[in-house]
Amino acid sequence: MIMGGLRHLIIILLLLGSSQQALARNESLEYALERCFTALAALKLPQGWIRHIKVPENPVDIQTLSGPVNQELPANNLSMTVWNIQKGKNSQWGKDLETISRDSDLVLLQEASLRADIRYPLVKSPHSWVFATSFMSRKHPGTGVTTGSKAEPVEISYARTVAVEPLIKTPKMALATKFKIQGREEQLLVVNVHAINFVGSKEYNLQLAQIFQLVQSHSGPVIVAGDFNTWNSFRWNELRRLFDSGAAGMRQVPLNRYNLFFHLDYVFARGIKVETAEQLGHVKSSDHFPIRVEFSIL
């Protein structure tokens, strides 16, 4: 099994080397990071380097972890919580999730896990859950993204990255669920995204293209939200080009943000009217702040 400390050491050494090259060539640090992660992704590791990590053939597991839910979502006065829970490392996260999402119609979690202690807060919630597994390990029987809802999804699909993150060689997931809306013929498409990290722009853009294809193929209202790992301008520019330029009718939902810099989590949408959208800066039980959105279907 590859140790996290060794993985981080390799990344730090490559970062230091790339930074020195950037200074020597008078390049920006962003270009240095881009070259570093491209090199990481290209590393050829011997068999046996990674143990106890498995990527499932069928990553979607329909988890009905609570009581019966509705057949439709309401058209008005909807609420949604979006949160990267950091694999539940902070024991307070479950209580925080219950507090902030109890009345949410939709809950989109990234870095979720099927481990028993992380499943328990989901079991207690008034939602039905769909889980898309990125990989499995000894510590986590499934790690990925999960979408909770107060209505049964009528269609479930996923987009798994072609590229994998370096060293541990695991993909990232986007989980798409469709819901009936009361009094409407069109359905709501919700895409829960955890974007790939530690790879070059080419691999990152390919995942965004996969997600954009899901949006283009749907005629009704759409929400695309999650952790997009936009830690450099290359990633942010491509994300904006596809989801905040009016392409396929998509626009970014402006957030009342708690943190002023280094934004990774976003909400993009079409066909909805946003009432409020904010980061919940008082929630400290993850390395990401939750996002809360209240909206209605147009």
The CATH H-level homologous superfamily of the largest domain: Endonuclease/exonuclease/phosphatase
Beta strand %: 25-35%
Classification by helices and strands? alpha+beta
**At CATH's second level, what is the architecture of the largest domain?**
4-Layer Sandwich
Q: Tell me roughly what share of residues is in helical segments.
A: 25-40%
What is the C-alpha radius of gyration, as a whole number of Å?
Answer: 19 Å
Average of the residue pLDDT scores: 85
Shape: globular
Q: What is the makeup of the main sheet? A: 8 strands, mixed
Q: What is the C-level CATH assignment of the largest domain? A: Alpha Beta
H/E element order: HHEEEHEHEEEEEHEHEEEE
> Structurally, how many domains make up the residues?
2
Which fold does the CATH topology of the largest domain refer to? Answer: Deoxyribonuclease I, Chain A
How many helical stretches?
6
Distance between the termini: 50 Å
Overall number of strands: 14
Q: Multimeric state of these chains? A: single chain
Low-pLDDT parts are none
Note down, in words, how this protein is organized.
- The chain is an alpha+beta fold.
- It has helices at 4-25, 29-41, 93-101, 116-124, 201-216, 233-243; strands at residues 53-54, 60-63, 78-84, 106-113, 128-137, 143-149, 155-160, 173-179, 188-194, 222-227, 251-252, 265-270, 272-279, 291-297.
- The chain folds into two domains: 4-41; 53-297, Deoxyribonuclease I, Chain A (4-Layer Sandwich), CATH 3.60.10.10.
- It has six helices and 14 strands.
- The strands form two sheets. Strands 1, 2, 3, 4, 5, 6, 13 and 14 form an eight-stranded mixed beta sheet that branches. A six-stranded mixed beta sheet has the order 7-8-9-10-12-11, with helices on one face.
- Strand 8 (173-179) and strand 9 (188-194) form a beta hairpin.
- Helix 1 (4-25) crosses helix 2 (29-41).
